Amino acid sequence: MPHPAADTAPRPAALACAQCRSRHLKCDGGRPVCRRCAVEGCECHYTPSRRGQRRRVQRRSSHGNGSATASVAGDDISPSTAQPWTNQPWPGMDVLPAIHPLPPDGLLEQNLPLGDHDSTLTELYFTNFHHSHPVLPPKIAYKALPVPECLRAVVRFIASILASSPAVDTYKDAACAALKEDLSWTAFRVQAQLLFAIALYSTNEQAEAQKYLQNAVDLACLLGMNRAGHQLLEESFRRTWWELFIIEGMFAALQKQASFRCNTVELGAGLPCEDPTFLSGVNLPKAPTLAQFDNRVFEDEDISFSSYCYRIEAVRILARVLAVAEDPDVEKDEFTAVDNALAGWRYHLPQCKADIARSQNAGEPDELMFQAYLIINNATIMLHLPRSNLRSIHPLTTDTTCCPWSRPLAPTFSQHNHLMKVTAASQGLSDLAALRCAHDHTPFLASGLIVASLVQLSICSLHASHCITQHRERVMLMIGVLKSLGRIWPLAQSGLTQVRSHAKEVLQRPLDTTAAGSLDPAGEEAANGEFTQIDISWMDDLLQNPASSVVHGAHLQQQQHSNQLPHHPQQQQHSHQLHPPHHQHPPLMMGQPSQHLSTATTPLTYDSFLDM
After folding, report:
1. Cβ neighbours of residue 425 closer than 8 Å, sequence gap 6 or more
2. Closest listed residue to residue 142, CA positions, set 132, 155, 133
3. Which terminus of the chain is less hemmed in, N or C, by CB atoms within 10 Å?
4. At what angle do helices 445-460 and 490-507 cross, to 10 degrees?
5. Which intervals carry biased composition (Polar residues) (predicted)?
6. Collapsed DSSP state (helix, strand, coil) of residue 491
7. CA 483, CA 10: separation in Å to the nearest integer?
8. pLDDT exceeds 70 at position 286
9. Which 8-state DSSP code applies to residue 242?
């Protein structure tokens, strides 16, 4: 028989307010304000229960309601269908284990390697990809949260790419189907479309990637993810908004856009915290504002923000570069201000962030600071390359999709000044590539290495023989990194095919062993203003028709062999062989065993190296 006091004891509230749920505190469920919020003077609101929504939605869909199915990328989003994301906090962690999302019926009918493989693919995603674009909740929370199937399907698709799974197309189709069948307008859907856009970009489907990215931006703006709101703003969703800002900025740079939408709306969302704090999931600090971050330079003490903040600032500077880079009428003061912002970014880094190779977790470099440096170096090339004399020196640097400014512009400073900054930025990109295993980085690294390789190849045509080796070695390093990236990301493989073809044409000349101050053959051509014209229209094809670029690379290689000069047999022989000076072995490449290198009696050719 129950205790008499049991009938009079207060029962737990059926629904806790959002404030109490986020803090894992008991709520009395009082309306319109619970007792705890009334005492503490906090804003109190309730999130309607979503239990049973999926079954009701599927029931309506089964009755032939065609309007219930959302299209993939070109959906018309209205405020009536979009629920403010600030009213959808994570459920309390104490109730998470009881929540198990159901996949749409359409996906259950497909013959997919789910079940046990789902957990394996999730582990693969969080181990190898999450650190590059850390927008999802921590892994433990992700597994317990009611994450919609569309997001889980996208995670599986990305993991299948990383695993080089033969079923990658099946996982991609499943992700597309899940995004079509998902009927909710939530921040989870924004995350799914953002990550799907990154995955499509890495597989050379840039047009589709752009559609998904734009749809994610539209939905995020309608949900108010770009604005500051209640203190219950979830760290994961803050990161989602800023990741949209970063990725759209990168897409704008690749697609020759002078602006992008995320940079034209209010930027009132709080800034993300450090990754280790985020991954812990407890005691998350109050998010700093953009104004607080900007005002750090006026403080007496050196204030350190999260790596994410400096990555965001890099894209804000990139946005300023995009606005002036191709403008022939830009005022000198405006140009100088942008140039100063690029240079000053490094000087305002705290000591703990200035060294990318610093130990962050188990000796691993800071991936977000790595990407911040990647963005700054790319932006520097975009700003100064059109105004340097490098473009007129060698046609390799014309019309690339990674550095798209195709029109030479009048120099703002001396052309030599612009050239020095382009050279330093391209060297900075190659230095980044040497830090650690390439496949641990974002696929956007491939774009930076492609343009840096082309810049270094152009510089090889300018410099005297005593310093050309350093540029040659940088190109070889970046070819090796692109090769490693190409095993995972098709985008890198397409770029590798073309960079390798042009490197053969530029680098297959023998080393000049004459006086240190003399010019090599490429330098003599530069002095006379004579250069070999090289077709680089393939770079624009990377965005439109990736498959055609690979075919073009094979055709270009055949054309190079057929265009040798038969009436100069001695010159022809030397153009294919590298004779190391003083009968020494050529320098060892990273990861290349010494027994695979040719000796002085068996010369190493650039053809043989570039084909490795």
Report:
1. 377, 378, 380, 381, 384, 452
2. 155
3. N
4. 10
5. 78-89
6. helix
7. 66
8. yes
9. H
Output 473 or 525, whichever has higher pLDDT: 473
Please list, in sequence order, all residues whose beta carbon lies within 8 angstroms of the beta carbon of residue 402, skipping any fewer than 6 positions away: 254, 378, 447, 448, 450, 451, 539
- Write down the architecture of domain 12-47 according to CATH: Irregular (4.10)
More confident residue, 119 or 371: 371
Q: What is the pLDDT of residue 237?
A: 86
Task: Round to the nearest angstrom and report the end-to-end CA distance of the chain.
Answer: 82
Q: What is the mean pLDDT of residues 520-529?
A: 37
Domain boundaries defined on the chain: 12-47, 74-274, 297-321+334-560, 564-612
169 pLDDT higher than 60? yes
In this prediction, residue 280 carries a pLDDT of 79
φ, ψ dihedrals at 119, nearest 5°: -65, -40
Which of 1-10, 208-217, 490-499 shows the lowest per-residue confidence on average (mean pLDDT)?
Answer: 1-10
Site of tokens 């996208």: 154
Cis peptide before 32 (omega within 30 of 0): yes
Type of residue at 513: T
Q: What angle do CA 179, 249, 75 make, to 5 degrees?
A: 30
* Tens digits of residue pLDDT in 234-283: 788 899 999 999 999 999 998 878 889 999 998 989 999 998 888 877 77
Q: What is the DSSP letter of 282?
A: S
Helix (H, G, I), strand (E, B), or coil: what is residue 403?
Answer: coil
| Neighbouring residues of 452: CB distance < 8 A, sequence distance ≥ 6 | 377, 381, 425, 426, 429, 430, 474, 478
- Alpha-carbon distance of 335 to 330, in angstroms, equals 7
56 band by pLDDT with thresholds 50, 70 and 90: very low
Pair 442, 132: CB distance under 8 Å: yes
Q: Which residues touch 525 (CB under 8 Å, ≥6 apart)?
A: 461, 531, 532
Rounded CA gap, 562 and 416, in Å?
A: 37
DSSP 8-state assignment for residue 253: H
Q: Note the helical H segments in 390-443.
A: 390-393, 415-433
| C-alpha span between 119 and 129 (Å, rounded) | 15
Contact between 82 and 219 (Cβ < 8 Å):
yes
Question: What percent of the chain clears pLDDT 90, i.e. is strictly above it?
Answer: 29
Q: Which two tokens stand for residue 171?
A: 């996982």
Instruction: For residue 484, give the nearest of 592, 347, 335 by alpha carbon.
Output: 592
Q: Find all residues with CB under 8 Å of 588, minimum gap 6, and list them.
A: 594, 597
pLDDT of res. 190:
93
Residue 73's pLDDT is what?
41
25-58: b (≥16 Cβ within 10 Å) or e? eebebeeebbebbeeeebebbbbeeeeeebeebb
What is the overall mean pLDDT for the chain?
71
**pTM for this model (two decimals):** 0.63
